Amino acid sequence: MDATRLSSCGGNLQPLKYVIVNDKQLLVKVFDTLSWAVYLPNYYPINDEMPQAYIILLLYKHGRTPIHDASIASMSISMVAYDEGVGSCILASVDREKLRAVFNVPERFDVVLVVALGIQQKNHWWNLFRMKP
Ligand SMILES: Cc1cc2nc3c(=O)[nH]c(=O)nc-3n(C[C@H](O)[C@H](O)[C@H](O)COP(=O)(O)O)c2cc1C
């Protein structure tokens, strides 16, 4: 959380708030609001690929640099997670109204992004086809 909490943001207005989810029942409810890998038909995480936690980024609606702030924050989480050996996926395909209802998110915030966190699948078959080093 420090990675994102201490990230810079426009005007230092600190428009992001975070919901940290690791409760088993809530993990299922969050999962039900997400769409995975839209260009891989029928792919979604299963079994030990399932996220172990989520960080939901809420953005104060009147922020001045919303996209920039949310992007920097989510990337900070991902990079530090990687450094700690934790896998992550930033998700924008979120059923925002459904997720808002789960956590009773006040109207003054947009649900902007969700970062899923879990155990890295280093030997996953999918990695064989990866283009990146
Ligand atoms: C802004 C943003 C939104 C994303 N939204 C989703 C999403 O809704 N669902 C998903 O499965 N992946 C999502 N991703 C993950 C990308 O698809 C993923 O980062 C990309 O395929 C590269 O894979 P890699 O991060 O493992 O290298 C998103 C990534 C970014 C940066």
Could you walk me through the main structural features you see in this protein, from its secondary elements to its overall organization?
- With 133 residues, the protein is α+β, with helices and mostly antiparallel strands.
- It has one domain (2-129): NADH Oxidase (3-Layer(aba) Sandwich), CATH 3.40.109.10.
- It is built from four helices and four strands, in the order αβαβαβαβ.
- It has helices at 2-5, 24-31, 66-83, 96-103; strands spanning 16-21, 53-60, 86-91, 109-119.
- The protein has a four-stranded antiparallel sheet, with helices on both faces.
- The longest helix has 18 residues, at 66-83.
- The radius of gyration is 15 Å and the shape is globular.
- The model has no long low-confidence stretch (mean pLDDT 91).
- Residues 35-37, 89-93 line the site of flavin mononucleotide.
Brief descriptors of the model:
4 helices, alpha+beta, 133 residues, NADH Oxidase, binds flavin mononucleotide, 29% helix
What's the short version?
With 133 residues, this protein is of the alpha+beta class. Helices cover 29% and strands 23% of the residues. The protein has a single domain (2-129), classed as 3-Layer(aba) Sandwich (NADH Oxidase), CATH 3.40.109.
User: What is the CATH superfamily classification?
Assistant: NADH Oxidase
Q: Which percent bin holds the helix content? A: 25-40%
The CATH architecture assignment turns out to be 3-Layer(aba) Sandwich
Placed side by side, the strands forming the largest sheet appear as 1-2-4-3
